[in-house]
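Hi P.,

Sorry for the delay on this. The queue was packed all week, but I finally got your sequence through. Input first:
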Amino acid sequence: MPPFQSDEECFRVVEALTAKLELEGHRQAADELRDGYRCLNGLTDGWALFLESLEHVQATRSARFCLEDRQTLEARRAVAHKAAHRR
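Then the structure:
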């Protein structure tokens, strides 16, 4: 998946993924992603909390997601990881 042109583009994809997961019956995963997304405040700590929610969903719930959703989740995790560990 290509890198995002802006944070806003990344955020739109996260919002779409969350809505899609909820429609597909993955309510707990959607709720957890939504909670992590709410932590984003422009600071590294917010990205770290969001990263934790992405990693937790990936480790505990993503096995039941379709391939496209798993790939989208991984791409968001990579972005959050980079943001949380930038200097």
